[in-house]
Amino acid sequence: MPIATVNPATGETLTTFDEFDHKEIDSRLARARWAFLDHRKTTYAYRAERMRRAADLLDAERDSIAATMTTEMGKTLAAARAEAAKCAKAMRWYAEHAEELLADEHPSAADIEDSGGTAAFVRYRPLGPVLAVMPWNFPLWQVVRFAAPALMAGNTALLKHASNVPQTALYLEDLFRRAGFPEGCFQTLLVGSAAIEGILRDPRVVAATLTGSEPAGRSVAAIAGDEIKKTVLELGGSDPFVVMPSADVARAAEVAVTARVQNNGQSCIAAKRFIVHADIFEDFAARFTEGMKALRVGDPMEETTDVGPLASKQGRADLERLVDEAVASGATVLCGGERPRHLRAGWFYEPTVLADVTPEMLIHREETFGPVATLYRVDSLGAAIELANDVPFGLSSNAWTEDQEEQERFIRDVEAGGVYFNGMTASHPAMPFGGIKRSGYGRELAGHGIREFCNVTTVWYGAKPGDGGPAAK
């Protein structure tokens, strides 16, 4: 795949970039290593000052970088602006909280005595240069939610971004440089996927994080495992959106529309399977379908557009394949199901609702990365949970119920990294994010995320430390 900006609203190639050669890659890996040796010694206050400056720059440049994101991958301009604002918020959050999240931890005096020591504590130390392999769907946020904690922890970062968002990738490198992070702390690598293995096997790279497809995650995990290097993977999702009789059906249907079509439906944590109790199924289905029909599909640069194009021609073809196979196998199209007739250019697809979906259909088990929802009718809480779990993924989940016993059942039994009640899944810097099953492993954000790429170091004293030794209080 060429490294290029191709406008998905028109199909026009706007600019292309040459891949880095081996010499340039080697130079950048060397810079990352040398930068780490200095960056790890800096104070939290030093890093926080630069992280806040990056946030300020991003806020000031929100409109221009939003336009770049929209041009490169098709999200609406309003969504792009919101993404930039969210990134600045996360930068400030880690600038504020990193030191306390990585503060030394102290066992009890009794446990220290039982260990035979006189003092002990746990210190979180940075690992080194971390490779981030990132996707195009949230081209700023996916990177920042890794980079902000990684840099605040004292690591350095190497970004291999998706090949269709090169200008956003280069902007991020420039942003951190202008914010005052020394050369080599954050670098973009303009390389194709074929270069990832060599970079990951290089001894100067100590760990990797990947957000993307299941095949990409398998590949990176296998290489890193062979090299015995830490990885964090956030892969696909087919999140359930369960609605029970005690729910506010009108509100649930309204939120369901946003939950399905956020980012033009191209989000791992977008709700994709809508599982509704039979007692309220007809009411919910009618409201949800009308909401999907009312969405305006069009130019993502226009403020009135609700749903823009898919990011690539292949992405639309993959979505069409799933819908067409489901319809041929007996699924009912409640709305959509085809390309918009008023848009001749670009990779658009109508917001679509399918009912009568069965487990035998491909669309039941594969992730639908676009504005297509599948609708299921169930007659009990147990059936709802069983269906929610009946996919290979386990990223997040949504459940609409006011019944506390039902809520406890969802928390206990739903196989996912998150359970969101009476709302939609959304990532926040203060809350850990990640999945189970084939949705990956490890966590991003919050304290869990910043500690993923730290050396959890046990420090133990068999004799009392001297006055000039490290603090163990």
UniProtKB/TrEMBL annotation:
Keyword Ribonucleoprotein: no
Assigned keywords, A-Z: NADP, Oxidoreductase
Listed CDD domains: ALDH_SSADH1_GabD1
Signal peptide start-end: none
A GO molecular-function descriptor: aldehyde dehydrogenase [NAD(P)+] activity
InterPro entries: Ald_DH/histidinol_DH, Ald_DH_C, Ald_DH_CS_CYS, Ald_DH_N, Aldehyde_DH_dom, ALDH_GabD1-like, GABD/Sad-like
Domain Aldehyde dehydrogenase: 3-459
Pfam annotation, one family: Aldedh
Sequence similarity: Belongs to the aldehyde dehydrogenase family.
Protein name: NADP-dependent succinic semialdehyde dehydrogenase
Species of origin: Actinacidiphila oryziradicis
